[in-house]
Specification:
Blueprint: E1 5-6, H1 24-27, E2 40-41, H2 43-49, E3 51-58, E4 61-67, E5 76-79, E6 86-88, H3 96-104, E7 110-112, H4 122-129, E8 132-136, E9 150-153, E10 157-161, E11 164-168, E12 177-181, H5 184-187, E13 190-194, E14 198-199, E15 205-206, E16 208-210, E17 215-216, H6 219-229, E18 236-239, E19 245-246, H7 251-267
Parallel strand pairs: 6-7, 7-8, 8-9, 13-18
Antiparallel strand pairs: 1-2, 3-4, 4-5, 5-6, 10-11, 11-12, 12-13, 14-15, 16-17, 18-19
Helix pairs in contact: 6-7
């Protein structure tokens, strides 16, 4: 039986004879149902029309995303680590070429995902590489394809290995998570932020409850994000899109200035 995939968000569902009646991920106010109606595809069909492209951002950090864009259009990040490679966030398409490339780079030990919009086909990826998927338990209800490869974690921090730490910041989703890589950027630190701390075209960052529907995040949640990140050093921030990274330096200062700008904009008088 096929494992149907929502074409709007890229989420894969358990194998079934017929597609689900709808996609709860898209029906949530943070996403949207295609105005033309719910539609579905499968990995087999997707492999006929799409391929994955790669980009090396820095030593041991590589981006992978589908061409042409599919679903929400994010790219994932493969971080090579002596303690086992980590796939940060996920994309839907997994094909033979991608499997061969990833295996040549040392495989994947852990898949960690920032929030439900990027769960995509995480189970396919986990099974292909014998990896575990780490998700925050606050977002358990949004897992559309439960599997033994999925491991839920609780609390505010979870160490993957020395120097790689998951931080639950909340915000966009209750379990919204970022990954801090202490050894990245030559030891100055890197923040892999998904949509939780989203890098904008102006190389500042911002925060939203819903990006497509333009629902802003409340001030208390943004202040909490800033407070949670304060103890961690990072020079670079990598968001969820090919061109969304802040560099070559100053990521921690960018976050502070961005928080001030955001809080001023939502609480101050009209400009």
């Amino acid at each position: 039986m096929p494992a149907f995939i929502c074409t709007t968000c890229g989420t894969q569902y358990p194998p079934s004879e017929a597609p689900p009646p709808g996609c709860p991920i898209c029906q949530d106010e943070r996403q949207y149902v295609n105005p033309l109606g719910q539609s579905w595809t499968t990995l087999e069909r997707l492999r006929l029309t799409h391929k994955n492209a790669w980009l090396r951002y820095q030593p041991d950090l590589f981006g992978v995303g589908s061409v042409p864009s599919f679903g929400i259009g994010q790219r994932a990040l493969l971080l090579r680590s002596p303690a086992g490679n980590v796939l940060w966030d996920c994309i839907t398409l997994l094909d033979d070429a991608t499997i061969e490339i990833v295996r040549a780079m040392g495989g994947i030990a852990t898949i960690a995902i920032s929030h439900p919009h990027y769960y995509s086909s995480m189970v396919e990826w986990a099974r292909a590489f014998g990896a575990k998927v780490l998700l925050h338990e606050a977002d358990r209800e949004h897992v559309m394809r439960p599997d033994t490869t999925v491991e839920f974690w609780a609390g505010e921090q979870r160490a993957i290995s020395p120097g790689l730490t998951l931080l639950r910041l909340g915000g966009h989703f209750a379990g919204g998570t970022v990954l801090h890589w202490a050894q990245g950027a030559g030891g100055k630190g890197v923040l892999l932020s998904g949509d939780i701390v989203q890098v904008g075209p102006d190389r500042m960052v911002s925060f939203m409850r819903s990006y497509p529907n333009l629902i802003p995040l409340d001030a208390a949640s943004v202040q909490h994000i800033a407070e949670m990140l304060e103890p961690f050093d990072f020079d670079l921030i990598y968001g969820a899109w090919w061109d969304r990274s802040y560099g070559p330096a100053g990521g921690k200062d960018v976050l502070a200035r961005s928080v001030r700008r955001y809080l001023g904009a939502i609480s101050g008088p009209p400009r």
